[in-house]
From TrEMBL:
<dbReference type="GO" id="GO:0006417">
    <property type="term" value="P:regulation of translation"/>
</dbReference>
<dbReference type="InterPro" id="IPR013979">
    <property type="entry name" value="TIF_beta_prop-like"/>
</dbReference>
<dbReference type="Pfam" id="PF00400">
    <property type="entry name" value="WD40"/>
</dbReference>
<keyword id="KW-0677">Repeat</keyword>
<dbReference type="InterPro" id="IPR011387">
    <property type="entry name" value="TIF2A"/>
</dbReference>
<keyword id="KW-0648">Protein biosynthesis</keyword>
<dbReference type="GO" id="GO:0003729">
    <property type="term" value="F:mRNA binding"/>
</dbReference>
<keyword id="KW-0810">Translation regulation</keyword>
<dbReference type="GO" id="GO:0043022">
    <property type="term" value="F:ribosome binding"/>
</dbReference>
<dbReference type="InterPro" id="IPR015943">
    <property type="entry name" value="WD40/YVTN_repeat-like_dom_sf"/>
</dbReference>
<dbReference type="Pfam" id="PF08662">
    <property type="entry name" value="eIF2A"/>
</dbReference>
<feature type="region of interest" description="Disordered">
    <location>
        <begin position="443"/>
        <end position="524"/>
    </location>
</feature>
<comment type="function">
    <text>Functions in the early steps of protein synthesis of a small number of specific mRNAs. Acts by directing the binding of methionyl-tRNAi to 40S ribosomal subunits. In contrast to the eIF-2 complex, it binds methionyl-tRNAi to 40S subunits in a codon-dependent manner, whereas the eIF-2 complex binds methionyl-tRNAi to 40S subunits in a GTP-dependent manner.</text>
</comment>
<protein>
    <recommendedName>
        <fullName>Eukaryotic translation initiation factor 2A</fullName>
    </recommendedName>
</protein>
<dbReference type="GO" id="GO:0003743">
    <property type="term" value="F:translation initiation factor activity"/>
</dbReference>
<keyword id="KW-0396">Initiation factor</keyword>
<feature type="domain" description="Translation initiation factor beta propellor-like">
    <location>
        <begin position="215"/>
        <end position="410"/>
    </location>
</feature>
């Protein structure tokens, strides 16, 4: 096994247990890395960075190709790793005939790095072509048409199509007989619907292919597709951005089942009010789990015919993950939940959860290809402190910790063939568990100290809390302001003024303090405040640049802020000199 990560300053590839140590011979000093990706069969490893996108042999980590792509934002492999698709931010050019955009979506052959197809695609969402499982065909949505291509000859144009108005998204099924589900949102009072076409019919009767299954529904502005592994059944999560009844902040969600042959469809009836948090197929294709309802949410295991197999209890959970073999599964609570992960055995589900682990602040959870380990990661920018990777055994034991500053992505290397899972759940490796426990104990024993703002870290300035902590002089007893020497009692509004005789006995007021120098200090506090403000502005500019690089459209004022970055950095350098 192997796992890889992407941080701000480097890309790393690590081996599996017992040490989970970095793989030797891989140069991870990749400037401006934006994404890392393994091919689904585990043969290739790609890194998108500034100036190029690199393709490596995942086994030897030898560099195979260095594709000349300036700034690829997203990359994706085809199911067998034969093709790599890349998307760059579109570039607009003004011509006498109007604005023209570059062909920023490209498809490359991984064996030799040859460009096989390129298209214009302005939006990043759903940008990549979807390949059938055997990679014989690639499908792409273009306006009112869904096109089928021969991926070896993209330049020859589509060899099949479906033409329908109002197509919003689609999903190609896995399996030997590929189908494609197409979503049509609500329009002019007509309900939304999903239609399923066979890919072969789109080629045999281009433009006039008939659908083999259809499901209509209201309250559907967008749809999430999830096919089972065999491609015979499809789960549809419909959602709206707003709940018109006002009961939910998250909008309205519903779940439907649809057979690819058109012989079965229904709504999945859920008996607890509230949103659907997650749903997931078992890799065996015969059952699925849904977590739904207001917190604490309810989890239920259904058959592929939407019959209840088992109720898994009510807990604050919102995430489901089966191991690749379908034997074990996790029910976890992430985001604004505590990060508790329950591990269940499908073969003894009546006994309840087997193990529980605490993966607080995790942004990602993945099972290893052998189904015996769980990888969790705390990622930036969701959380910018305590970033790192934790690897757990399926019995709940922590076996590895790797703290990585500004970690953005982490993933296991997939396996072309899923290895079998042992009949009995294996025990955790003792050496790895002991080493991880020692690291965790050392981290928990580390003194935290007083909080200091980022601009003051590394300087000689002592915070007020630190000064109080270092001062061993006992604090004097409390004296009310009115009883302090030379003090003045607080005047109660509406009370009569004191006599002029008493006023004559009062001490004269002290002159107001006009600056830091008047109290024996220096102007360093004002400089630190300016430094903090400049760093805050630069951080906001970095976030705007990330949004721009993802293809989002920025306002003119936001673009002006980005243009002013150089001036802010000069000002900051002058203050720190």
């Amino acid at each position: 096994m192997q796992w890889a990560y992407r941080a701000q300053k480097r890309v790393g590839v690590n081996a599996d247990e017992p040490e989970f140590a970095p793989v030797s011979g891989f140069d991870g000093s990749v400037a401006g890395s934006r994404m890392v990706q393994y091919s689904p069969d585990g043969r290739y490893f790609a890194v998108a960075a500034d100036g190029s996108t690199r393709i490596y042999d995942a086994s030897t980590l030898a560099l195979l190709h260095d594709l000349a792509i300036e700034k690829a934002i997203e990359i994706a492999f085809s199911p067998r790793g034969t093709y790599l698709s890349t998307w760059e931010r579109p570039v607009r050019t003004e011509t006498p005939n109007g604005a023209v955009y570059n062909k920023n979506l490209r498809v490359w052959r991984t064996s030799d790095g040859v460009l096989t197809g390129e298209f214009e695609r302005r939006q990043i969402e759903g940008c990549f072509p979807q390949f059938t499982a055997d990679e014989k065909y690639a499908l792409r949505l273009a306006g009112a048409e869904l096109h089928v291509f021969d991926p070896t000859r993209f330049d020859a144009g589509p060899i099949g199509r479906v033409r329908q108005e109002n197509m919003a998204s689609f999903s190609v099924s896995p399996g030997e007989r590929p189908s494609v589900a197409v979503f049509f949102p609500e329009k002019k009072g007509a309900p939304a619907m999903v239609r399923i076409y066979t890919v072969s019919s789109m080629i045999d009767t281009p433009g006039t292919a008939a659908h083999v299954a259809q499901k209509s529904f209201f309250k559907a502005e967008k749809v999430t597709f999830k096919w089972n592994a065999s491609g015979t059944s499809l789960l549809l999560l419909t959602a709206t951005d707003h709940d018109k009844t006002g009961k939910s902040y998250y909008g309205e969600t519903n779940l439907y089942m649809l057979s690819s042959r058109g012989d079965f469809d229904c709504r999945v009836n859920l008996d607890k009010e509230g949103p659907i948090h997650d749903f997931e197929w078992n890799p065996n294709s015969r059952e699925f789990i849904v977590i739904y309802g207001y917190m604490p949410a309810k989890a239920v295991l259904f058959s592929y015919r939407v019959n209840v197999i088992a109720e898994l209890g009510t807990q604050p959970r919102n995430f489901i993950a089966f191991n690749p073999q379908g034997r074990l599964f996790c029910l976890a609570g992430f985001g604004n939940l505590a990060g508790t992960v329950d591990i269940w055995d499908r073969e003894s589900i009546d006994k309840g959860k087997l193990f529980t682990l605490n993966a607080s602040n995790s942004s990602v959870l993945q099972w290893s290809p052998d189904g015996q380990y769980i990888l969790t990661g705390t990622l930036s920018p969701r959380l910018r402190v305590e970033n790192g990777v934790r690897i757990w055994h399926c019995t709940g034991s922590l076996v590895h910790i790797d703290m990585i500053e500004e970690l953005y992505q982490v993933t296991w290397r997939p396996s072309a063939k899923v290895p079998p899972f042992p009949q009995r759940i294996p025990a955790a490796p003792t050496a790895s568990t002991a080493a991880a426990a020692a690291i965790a104990k050392q981290a928990s024993a580390r003194p935290v100290g007083a909080y200091r703002p980022p601009a003051a870290r590394g300087s000689s300035t002592t915070s007020v809390t630190e000064a109080l902590r270092r001062d061993d002089t006992p604090s004097p007893a409390y004296v009310a302001p009115g009883n302090r020497a030379g003090g003045r009692a607080k005047r109660v509004p509406g009370a009569p003024e004191r006599s002029s005789a008493n006023k004559k006995n009062e001490r004269p007021k002290a002159a107001p303090v006009m600056g830091a120098a008047d109290v024996g200090g220096s102007g360093d506090g004002a400089i630190e405040k300016k430094v903090r403000n400049l760093n805050k502005k630069l951080k906001a500019i970095e976030q705007l640049k990330e949004r721009r690089d993802r293809g989002e459209t920025l306002e003119q004022t936001q673009l002006q802020k980005i243009d002013g970055e150089a001036e802010l950095r000069r000002e900051l350098a002058a203050l720190e000199a």
